[in-house]
Design goal:
Layout lengths: L33 E4 L5 H11 L15 H10 L3 E6 L4 H13 L2 E5 L7 H10 L12 E5 L4 H9 L8 E7 L6 E4 L5 E3 L13
Parallel strand pairs: 3-6
Antiparallel strand pairs: 1-4, 1-5, 2-4, 3-5, 6-7
Helix pairs in contact: 2-5
Amino acid sequence: HRGSADKIFINTAGIGLFQFPINLSSFNAQPGDKVLLSGPIGDHGIAVMLAREALDIETDIQSDTAPLNGLIHALLDATKAVHCLKDATRGGVATVLNEIALNSNVAIAIEEDSVPIRPEVNGACEILGLDPLTIANEGRFIAIVASEDAETAVHALQNHPQGSEACIIGEVLEEPEGMVFLRTALGGHRVLDMLVGDPLPRIC
């Protein structure tokens, strides 16, 4: 109500036309699909936290904030076998994958060694006790793509200036339904849950 907010709040909304004949939904992931990530994760959340909290950590980490329309157009021009597409904002990659696994009644496994994380972001997360897989991003997305078109999709992303570090990080499995796993570098498995609580203050 009037007077309860500090200074100005700005709210925006956008309306657009989706021109591709594809049904993109978090309910569409299928066993055998590949999980694609458009680039390194964690940059935005860590950059904002370090700036906001004035932490004494020397780093040149910068936000990954970027418009995604051009990169997504490049992907959808290359293949129509994209089943799910979601930006990895609040809750990060882990939360997005859990939403897809739950809605599609599938399991998802990702490879720890395949997830691109900059060393400085990884280092900051270790110091702060944070998991980069749950850190917010503003210029990254997850795409679930049919296995036979996954390489085509990755190459299309990599050929775009914003997607040079895009990669396949995992696959969709039949079961256990609704679960997401991280296959660790040591050969073990770790369950990835949705973000619980709020390790970082709300960014937007």
